[in-house]
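Predict structure. Chain length: 114.
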Amino acid sequence: MTDDINKKIINIFSAHKKARPCSGNQVCESAEGYSYVTIKADDNGRHFDEEKLLKNASSFYYIVKVMVKEGKHPYINNFKISGDKVLDFVKMYTDGKGEGQIIEIDKFYPEDWA
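Prediction complete.
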């Protein structure tokens, strides 16, 4: 189900046209200048369950690629970060406490590791 919603959101972003009023399933812009799409129900019209969303968020991992400059050639560290700790990890780099620069973040479910 999550992959279907992600594809739907990508399709909405790719069909985005400027100067439209912002409402459900349309591209909006936050006060900070970031584009987003609001999804209020799943593909079957059911509203989301907060507990299920939070449980799902803590069940997957992120692979965070960090480029580190050393001498003439940089290298990449790949970190496996649990969903409940990803914000703490990113904050470490935005605060300048982590070595290197985050260049990519991918999401993986535990069954994808095999």
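Summary: Residues 53 and 59 are 10 Å apart (CA to CA).
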